[in-house]
Specification:
alpha+beta; two-stranded antiparallel ribbon; 4 strands; about 20% strand
Length: about 90
């Protein structure tokens, strides 16, 4: 399994950057996940480009006894949301 934890490409608005990323992301043909990075929030509307390509920002992965939380902007949104997920099990 491969987990990318943000900032997968240098310039989100450049198609060629995504083409290179996906070329290597799909090459191993293994389970892989990606999370949005802090750089996707530095310029207006860049996070929306992420959404249009990846289709998600916040999600959880449950693997046996492990729970992986992929949350946007952990310091503002993610930590309170993570606390709720862990407490409520949702």
């Amino acid at each position: 399994m491969v987990i990318f934890n943000g900032d997968e490409v240098d310039r989100l608005f450049m198609r060629s950057a995504w083409e290179v990323f996906f070329k290597y992301w799909f090459k191993p043909r293994i389970l892989s996940f990606a999370g949005i990075g802090n750089h996707e929030y530095e310029e207006p509307r860049v996070a929306e480009i992420w959404d249009s390509i990846m289709g998600y920002r916040n999600y959880t992965i449950s693997l046996g006894k492990f729970l992986l939380l992929c949350l946007m902007r952990a310091w503002k949104v993610g930590l309170p949301l993570a606390s709720k997920v862990v407490k409520e099990g949702t």
